[in-house]
Amino acid sequence: MNWNARMFASLMLFNPEQSSAQPFIGRHHVFHATGALPSIRLRSRAQVKMAPLHVSRLRDDDIPLESPPITPRSRSDTEKSGRPDEAEDDDDDDGSDENALRPPRPVSLAISTHSMAKRPESLLHEACFLFVVSMAQFLGQTGLALSIITAHIIGRSWEHVSDGQLSWFAASFSLTNSTFILVAGRLGDLYGHRRLFIAGFFWYGLWSLLAGFSVYATSTTFFICCRAFQGIGAGLVLPNAVAILGRTYPPGRRKELVFSLFGATAPAGFNVAGIFIALLAQRVWWPWSYWIMAVFCFSLAVAGIFVIPRALDPPPRTESSVKQGSRFDFIDRIDIFGAFFGITGLALINFAWNQAPIAGWSNPYVYVLLIVGFLFLAGFGVVESKAKFPLIPTSVFTGDLGWTLSCIAAGWASFGIGLYYYYQFMEVIKGDEPLLAVGKWAPAPIMGVIAGLTTAYLLSRVSPSVIMFMAMCGFLIAATLLATTPVDQTYWAQAFVMTLIYPFGMDMSFPAGTILLSNAMPREHQGLAASLIATTINYSISLSLGFAGTIETQLNHHGSDLLRGYRSALYFSPGQAIITYHEHTAGAEFPQLRIPAYPMLCLAASPSLAELDRPKPSFKEKRFESFIIAIASCGIYQIGRLSILNLTADAHMFNQNMTSSSGEEAPASYARFACDPCRKGKRRCDRTVPRCALCARKGAQCVYLPRRRSRQTWPEGRSPMPNTLSSSGATVSRPDSQLDHRIPQYTSVVTPVTPVTPTTSNEAATATAIYFIAPQIFRQAQLELPRIHPSIPADLSPFENDPSRIRNIAYTFFDSIHWWMPLISKKEFFAHLLNPLSQRRSELSLLIICMQLYCARDLNPGTGALDVTALYHNAKRLHFEMEAAGVLSLRVLQAGILIALYEFGQAIYPAAYLTVGACARHGTAIGVNNLREESPSEYRSSRSMSEVDERRRAWWTILFLDRFMNISNPNRPLATKNPTFDDLLPVDDKLWDEGTAKPSDAFSISQGFSLKMGMFSRLGQATYMLSQALDLVGPDNHQDPMERDQQIAQLRRTVHALITVSNAEASERELRTCAGFCPQLSICSSTIFLLQEYQWRAKSNDMGLIPNYISARDTSEETLSTLDHLATTAQGFRDQMVDTTSVLVATPFLAHVAYQAALFLIRLSRGEPDDITTRRMSLFKGLLQDIVPRWKMARVYLDILDAQEITTASEAACGPRPLRYSQDPDQ
User: Per-residue b/e over 505-539, b at no fewer than 16 CB within 10 Å?
Assistant: First the structure.
């Protein structure tokens, strides 16, 4: 069969019903056959008329295409490319050479198996069509929002979820999304973009549904797999959506507008959907966002069946289109081997870069996978060069298109880094909730629509290269604003402006690049054009996060300086860095400054992008382009100038801070106000005395003039915060204090990197003050409460030392203190706080220092052991700095509780009493005082059950300490309200430690005793009974004496029953003996003794008197039984003390109950104890002697007992001399 006959047979394959039947028009047409047909030149017009040709009619608003020049090629070249070259009809009779090149002429639309679809005729149909197709871009960004915004909330659904696993929630989606897009475009070219579009939405919905149900899985593995399969669905939908639009709309005004609106859905998809995602995660349950996503995807798939034209489906295949001879060519057409090598190479490279920040480059498998990935890409190039139908034909990929994709990759990589670290900056550094962080990004979708309409307007007036230039300017300016945003700055200064500019970068680059590639490629490669853009966008976002993550982990000082790591990654966001050095006039050297460079290269290269199919611009268009470029260049210059000045000042301040923390000579002090040259030049002054960094760099004279206080009180014109001791140069000087030589002067900082200058510290203090003093004004002014974290000196920070030291402290604490005061979640501590990738905040360091108070013995520093007194002073000083800086967090509250317990055990008064009151105020400020039942939705959204119970335990501990310290004087008012009968108790300690507790495991006070409640739950019940006892014996109780005696008797029996149940549970669970002396036993014993003392006072007819000796007849049976139980348990504890280290498990409340028991024995003996009383007195005193090395309170108790024995014996001989309650410390 000759070539003309083969062309005739191929043309007969066209389905006449797939295009409008119009008469043959024009002389010159381009034919694209489906098979590997060579390009031919038709010799006569008759050969054309014999084929039933059908062409699409040009619309009035369409712009005719220019047929590209025809380059003669050999048959082998044609077969490699997979499509024939264009052929022209030549009926000239001038005898010219048939292989001569013809100049381009206007033609109608190209004829191919992928013919142009008819645009929907009605406006309603077209609107529905555009909505369904645009949802591909919308839901693609929604897929990222599903895991980025609520990653921390989702991670709480499983146990022991590390930060690395959280990062894979988004990385797995981006990985498969970016790698499968290219194959999806080829499948759409072969089997129809409409079919792949509908199938992709069905696939997307299926795995969204399963991802929601993965909450019931035992680990995150299934959820991550579901996220990866979700990415495949998004990869199938997006390129075919772009191809559908490219084949439906011919080049023209309408096509430019459609692609502009299509690109505008990207920011809208992330932000509009992100609001609902955050709402569902915080208020309902996070799986509902995935289930609603599945329903939406299924609905779009069904809608696509009806609104997308069927003309986009390929014609029915025949034997000639499926076979070549007798060989089935499915593998060749799909390019299975090319897809395997390409997808595998891209996936391995992506995996290696995103896993490196988690596992580290020191692990061999990371760089081995990276090398293997590059080898697979090399194999992909070899396979594609020999493939019959390559995924990326080299004939359609030119250098101009390469520059276009490079600009898109650089810009969207910048956006991906900025978007990810924006949420980290807002949620981690500034402490915003996910919903608030999404709300701050709300202007982006609105500006996305404006940017899309602006792009549609400009595309008809300027060349796409100028649009790409403007888009890169938007990426650069927005990334620079985000990277240089101060932590304590108001949202409206830079963050708000950044959200207005970023959409212009996205919604200008995508339509411009899409139109460039769509118009440059033939119809059969519209899916390839869409795949290239979508692959470039998604893969650049995913891969750039791996680059940024590596930079962050390498520069954040092993997680101790979060802000430094975030800023380092954000400095990389604009592009590669240019390292420059600036010499200080005094000889000092500034740190390296990172200046965005790669986008500048793209900006410089973008004007050279080929005009492709656009006509030569007119003089007015050139002038308009020059005007736009001039404005953008001026803006970039100003932004870069200000950024470099800010970075210079920040770098100098950071260098000084690092010098100070490294033990070298301390930097110069700071002035209260900026120097006069910087103030006049409106520059950022670091206020270093005697010379600031900017004046030193410029060689100018630095003068600090006195300034009068401004009338404006916030945020300018205020003195430094007086509590910042380092700023004012004040030191703590006490003759008996070891604090001065243990804590060097340091400056409170907003984050672990940036030191707090007097202004920023004062701004934070003022914002916190307004929040507490005038909350209504605070909300009306829309102010933000800053989250400030004072820095920990290097010699005190536990993270600066050997990590094994922290583990030893934790193991010792949880093996001893945690038995009788389970206040800190063991699961959270070991799973997150000790994770090397977790946040190293200052409050965590403070908590570890306070834990260390209980794990070290107070020995002489000369012996090499830790001086606990100095450690206590350091903890108090750091806790004071936290409060002065306005830090409100559960970790700081737990540290304060541990300090109060330590002060109580060491008999440090009145510090213990005052610290408990401060903890009560702190707990009220952060809202842990809410002991009412929370709805299941709150468990599933904002906090996990472990976190809710940890907060509940903190408040119950405060309630317990507040009442326990008032037992000796019930007339003192409490710092907290009494718990109610319906308040929830902590869950079982075992379930809490294992992380398997559920909301149904929490009991209320009103529920009966059960061996499944746990020891700490009994602490809550005992605290409630102690509250009732204090109310009964208090001076404000005016009940009838008989009614009060009945209540006292009933309460005493209830308390005694609680002691019995606690002892039974300790025996059943085989708890160590010290668990019998846990706080609830001390509270129960103290409550019984308190009620007994009240009865003695009532019997003496003087409520202000406490008899120093009493009779056994006047003592209740419960009191005597309690004394017997305490004696038995104390003897068992002493028998188990085989060495002095066993005293670490002793509680300060053990000393208290031993003291109270001994005191009652002294009173019962009336100065003449019998043998049993003497043995018990010796037992309790011996126990106190054993506890003295651990708790100094035991020594105080022994001194009181000695004095009580003398007083009792004296009164027995000379008459009673009662002790009186008094609130006056001088009496």
Answer: bbbbbbbbbbbbbbbbbbbbbbbbbbbbbbbbbbb
Per-residue pLDDT band at 446 (split at 50, 70, 90): confident
List the alpha helices (DSSP H) in 393-494: 399-424, 434-440, 443-459, 464-483
Contact criterion met (CB below 8 Å) for 276 and 458: no
Phi, psi dihedrals of residue 375, rounded to the nearest 5°: -65, -40
Q: What is the pLDDT of residue 777?
A: 66
* Final residue in a domain of this structure, among 282, 312, 342: 312
Residue 1124 Cα distances to 66, 870, 902, angstroms: 105, 40, 29
Answer yes or no: is 998 within a domain.
no
123-148 and 193-213 helices, crossing angle to 10°: 40
* 680: containing domain: 672-703
In a domain, 744, yes or no: no
Residues 154 and 298 in one domain: yes
Here the tokens at position 445 are 């979708």
Render pLDDT for 983-1040 as a digit per residue (tens, 0 to 9). Answer: 888 888 888 877 777 777 788 877 655 666 777 888 888 888 888 888 888 777 777 7
Domain-ending residue, one of 248, 278, 312 = 312
Q: Where are the beta strands (DSSP E) in 998-1141?
A: 1105-1106
**Two structure tokens written together for 1129:** 């348990």
Nearest of 568, 569, 606 to residue 472 by alpha carbon: 606
- Give CA–CA dist 248/262, Å, rounded: 14
For range 259-278, the mean pLDDT: 78
In DSSP terms, 596 is beta-bridged to 577
Strand partners, 62: 252
**Are the C-beta atoms of residues 13 and 318 closer than 8 Å to each other?**
yes
CA 19, CA 21: separation in Å to the nearest integer?
Answer: 6
Q: What is the DSSP-derived secondary structure letter of residue 723?
A: T
DSSP three-state, residue 340: helix
DSSP H/E element including 49: helix 45-49
Give the distance, in angstroms, between the CA of residue 1198 and the centroid of all CA atoms in the same chain.
53
Cα gap 854→858, rounded to integer Å = 10
464 with 570, same domain: the answer is yes
pLDDT at 1134 over 90: no
Q: Show Cβ contacts of residue 184 under 8 Å, excluding neighbours closer than 6 positions.
A: 196, 200, 235, 236, 238, 239, 240, 527, 531
Which residue in 423, 459, 535, 521 sits closest to 182, CA to CA? 535
Helix pair 1015-1033, 945-964: axis angle to 10 deg: 40
Specify whether 88 is located in the same domain as 128. no
First to last CA, the chain: 123
* Cβ atoms of residues 542 and 416 within 8 Å: yes
Residues 645 and 677 in one domain: no
CA 345 from centroid of its chain's CA atoms: 30
By C-alpha distance, which of 245, 140, 230, 250 is closest to 193? 245
The number of domains in the chain is 5
Does 910 sit behind a cis peptide bond, omega within 30 degrees of 0 on the bond before it?
yes
CATH of the domain at 296: 1.20.1250.20
Which CATH number does the domain housing residue 686 bear? 4.10.240.10
- Domain co-membership, 599 together with 690: no
User: Do 611 and 550 lie in a common domain?
Assistant: yes
State whether 94 and 231 are in the same domain.
no
State the DSSP code for 63.
Answer: P
User: d(Cα 142, Cα 271) in Å, to the nearest integer?
Assistant: 8
**Together in a domain, 504 and 591:** yes
Q: What angle do CA 625, 61, 56 make, to 5 degrees?
A: 130
692 part of a folded domain: yes
More confident residue, 420 or 6: 420
Report pLDDT digits (tens) over 109-155. 333 344 566 777 788 888 899 999 989 888 888 888 888 788 778 88
Instruction: Please report whether residue 452 resides in a domain.
Output: yes
